[in-house]
Design a protein that fits this description.
Elements (H helix, E strand, L loop, with lengths): L3 E4 L14 H12 L3 E5 L9 H4 L5 E4 L4 E4 L2 E5 L4 H13 L3 E6 L3 E3 L1 H13 L4 H8 L3 E2 L9 E7 L5 H7 L4 E5 L10 E5 L4 H12 L6 E5 L5 H6 L2 E4 L5 H6 L2 E2 L7 H8 L4
Parallel strand pairs: 1-2, 1-12, 2-3, 7-8, 12-13, 13-14
Antiparallel strand pairs: 3-4, 4-5, 6-7, 6-9, 9-11, 10-11
Helix pairs in contact: 1-10
Length: 271
């Protein structure tokens, strides 16, 4: 049986302008044709993934940092944040005067103020208008997020309370990770249900697909990729990845724009 290859999207398969190198596109087609499984493993919800990327017919998709998983187009796992976790998280974020939003399978949900502030923040981060549009074009406005039953995770920025302290306050209900859209900073992060992460999504996928953990390779670049790289038999950090991730990875490849995906797959003898 071939390998199962798990790929983060932003900063790994595509750069932060939303562009995928031709070398990566060709490499994915070749390894899939050779009998290996290619699986997206992203913090994005499914609706936020570029249509041209899902059109590449991946063998699996893990989204919302592990809260959603599918195999060959079949949904195999879904998890939504419980009301207690949402209430606790919103109370902290309001006290921190943070801008925040929620991810659902169908799109982003935010308060009116949160939507405005989040879009401004993304623009200030230098993200492309194409990427911003992909994330926000179908965003809903809802002032009572804690009452929803379809929320997969929360994102926040501009918090007056550091990420580490938010993590401590929400430890009973949630996991809190530094933002994966930029270099780790103390005022931005993502909140998921306790125990829900990319590694838990990978586990759901390989169990369903009948793949051994020993046959897994994961590729990532940011803060929410640590558990993913640690869970895989081989964890690969991109050359543009954060320092701590590169330090713990089994292998460090070139940056996304320097053909890092193709280079690593060649190095492992998969091309």
């Amino acid at each position: 049986m071939g390998k199962a290859l798990f790929f983060d999207i932003d900063g790994t398969l595509v750069n932060f302008q939303g562009k995928m190198p031709d070398s990566a596109r060709d490499a994915l087609k070749k390894v899939q044709a050779a009998g290996h499984k290619i699986v997206l493993c992203s913090g994005r919800s499914k609706c936020q993934i570029y249509p041209w990327l899902t059109d590449m017919r991946f063998d699996g998709i893990i989204c919302a940092t592990g809260a959603y998983a599918e195999c060959n187009g079949r949904i195999i796992y879904e998890h939504h944040m419980e009301e207690a976790a949402l209430v606790a998280a919103r109370n902290v974020l309001e006290r921190a005067r943070a801008c925040y939003c929620a991810q659902t399978l169908k799109g982003i949900v935010a308060t009116a103020e949160g939507k405005k502030r989040m879009i401004c923040r993304f623009r200030a981060m230098g993200l492309s208008e194409d990427m911003i549009s992909q994330v926000w074009k179908d965003a809903q406005v809802d002032e009572r997020l804690e009452q929803r039953s379809d929320i997969e995770k929360l994102l926040f920025h501009e918090s007056a309370i550091p990420v580490g302290l938010i993590r401590e306050e929400l430890a009973k209900h949630c996991d809190v990770t530094e933002s994966s859209f930029e270099r780790p900073v103390d005022d931005a992060g993502e909140i998921t249900s306790r125990g829900i992460n990319k590694a838990s999504g990978m586990k759901k996928y390989i169990e369903y697909a009948g793949i051994m953990r020993e046959d897994t390779i994961a590729f990532g670049d940011g803060p929410n990729d640590f558990d993913m790289l640690e869970y895989a038999k081989v964890g690969v950090a991109m050359g543009n990845g954060i320092g701590p991730l590169k330090k713990m990875a089994d292998y460090v490849t070139a940056a996304v724009d320097d053909d890092g995906i193709a280079s690593a797959l060649h190095a492992f003898g998969l091309l």
